[in-house]
Design a protein that fits this description.
Blueprint (H helix, E strand, L loop, with lengths): L9 H12 L2 H16 L21 E8 L2 H32 L23 E8 L2 E9 H20 L10 H23 L8 H10 L4 E10 L7 H8 L4 E2 L6 E12 L2 E11 L5 E11 L2 H20 L10
Parallel strand pairs: 4-5, 4-6
Antiparallel strand pairs: 1-3, 2-3, 6-7, 7-8
């Protein structure tokens, strides 16, 4: 019995809640069936099988329960139930780890792990029990934990192999490599969390975490802008610098990647034409990306603004990022 003079620590309270959660699954199954019984008029609905109200558990196997008006729907719901069980365990492990370190749970530290059947390889999922009564199918599915863990571990190792191939010549990463690093690290964190929840050893990618921190929040980039032609850019360089700043921290530090922008402005009857060439180079002056385009608008300001939008889109394509609110071109 808990001594009233010695209340539970936050860590003990967290573990207690997790233990209580294991009994909630059965409780909610009764609630669901009670609601269905009420909606169906009470007596017209058969009772679910006893095995359906007593979820199984095993150290090496995962189980899921589902119901529906067809066998396929019941199996799909059971698969989602199984995936939800994994997600619950993942978050429970994260909460306990944080509590053990801090003796308190900091929600800002929790990783946002959201699982679905699409993220789990369920090819070996088997129906272990099924029942049909008055238009309702009941299904129990099962899969060995190793059958889920092995494909995840293989994808994790493949992702880390891709990170090993990132160029290490310069002091910073390119926009494209930084976006790749972020994507692979997100997948690695999720994979590690799932593996540990299933009782398997994950991978060590601390070196890549440090690489991300060194380049965060955006990689550093030198920018040089030159103009030629009838009209000068003068103070309009800020338009292009503003677009580049959405992807990188502009710097003059040595041993970094460099973006060279050359713009040519010319008058055409009642319009202004701008031709823009953008070249990305590494710290050894090797060209790694290039874009050329032109825009014709009613006046100089509109031409430069339009060219800035196109530059943004080309840099977005190069980096491989996905950002909302992309200007239409």
């Amino acid at each position: 019995m808990q001594n009233k003079n010695h209340p539970q620590t936050k860590k003990e309270a967290m573990i207690s809640k997790i233990k209580q959660a294991k009994g909630l699954k059965k409780f909610w199954l009764f609630i669901v069936f009670g609601a269905l019984l009420f909606l169906s008029g009470g007596c017209s609905m058969a009772n679910p099988p006893k095995w359906f109200l007593t979820p199984k558990s095993a150290s090496d196997t995962l189980y899921g329960l589902g119901m529906g008006d067809s066998l396929a729907k019941a199996k799909a719901q059971a698969a989602n139930d199984l995936a939800q069980s994994v997600q619950t365990q993942v978050k429970s492990n994260i909460n306990i780890t944080n509590s053990a370190i801090n003796d308190s749970f900091d929600s800002s530290v929790e990783q946002n792990i959201s699982l679905s059947t699409a993220m789990l390889d369920l090819q070996n999922l088997k129906i272990t029990q099924k029942s049909h009564s008055k238009g309702t199918y009941y299904v129990e599915v099962a899969i060995a934990k190793k059958d889920i863990a092995m494909p995840i571990k293989a994808r994790l190792e493949q992702g880390l192999d891709r990170l090993e191939s990132l160029p290490k010549t310069c002091a910073t990463l390119s926009l494209k490599d930084f976006a790749s690093l972020q994507k692979e690290l997100k997948n690695a964190r999720e994979s590690n969390a799932i593996l540990r929840a299933l009782g398997f050893v994950g991978a060590d990618f601390e070196a890549f975490e440090e690489l991300q921190k060194a380049n965060a929040p955006k990689p550093k980039l030198k920018v040089e802008i030159n103009s030629r032609g009838e009209k000068s850019l003068q103070g309009d360089k800020s338009v292009f610098l503003g677009e580049v700043a959405k992807f990188a921290r502009i710097t003059n530090e040595p041993n970094t990647y460099k973006l060279e922008i050359e713009a040519a402005l010319s008058s055409e009857s009642k319009s202004t034409r701008i031709e823009l060439k953008a070249v990305m180079k590494d710290c050894a002056d090797n060209v790694i990306w290039e874009a050329n385009f032109s825009e014709t608008q009613a006046n100089k300001n509109q031409a430069i603004k339009r060219a800035g939008i196109v530059l943004y889109k080309r840099l977005l394509d190069f980096s491989g990022e996905t950002q909302g609110g992309i200007p239409k071109i």
